Structure formats: structure tokens, C-alpha cells
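Problem 12. The chain below contains 96 residues. Write out its predicted structure in C-alpha cell notation.
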Amino acid sequence: MRLLGGGHAELTLAMVAVAALRTPANTDHEVVVEVGGRNLPVLPLVETALGRRPANTHSAEEALHALGFTMYVRRRYDKVSGRPVVLDRAARKSSS
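Solution.
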């Protein structure tokens, strides 16, 4: 996987298992992964496992998916209407 600031690292199942013991469950993150029946934030989990920060959430998700883990994404809702937020093409492009 790509790392922030350059370089690459390989994530292993053993690294994820050990990091899961040290990573607190956190509901503030948008993308979580199920590890041992717990939903853990993807970036802090991978950062703990590698000792370095991944380049981005997508790199971390791909590495965890390759190891067989399932990711979940929290959906955003409009506070006024209560409906799911849907971004148009321009908004999606400007948000990345």
C-alpha cells in the first residue's frame, strides 16, 4: 500500500490483528472495518498496524479488502430534510 509522504508497505493479517487490540472503536470516522466483531476506523487501524500513515483512506481500504475484511461507510443526511445527501458530479469532483 502507498504511504503518506511516499513509499510503500505491506499490510498482513497478523499486523491487523495486533493493531485491532490497540485501536479503540470510534464513531467519528466515516469508514470503518469489521475486525473481530468490532467496527474500527480504517485509517487509525492501518496507521497503528504499519506505524506510518497510509496515503489515503482508499489505499487503506484496498489493503484491508485484499486481506478479506469488510468495510462500512457512514451515510450523511441533510439536517433539515433528513434525506440522504446526494452530491452532483461537480461537488464530487471538488471534494476529492
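Discussion. Residues 65 and 86 are 25 Å apart (CA to CA). Students who got a different answer should revisit the alignment rule from Section 12.3.
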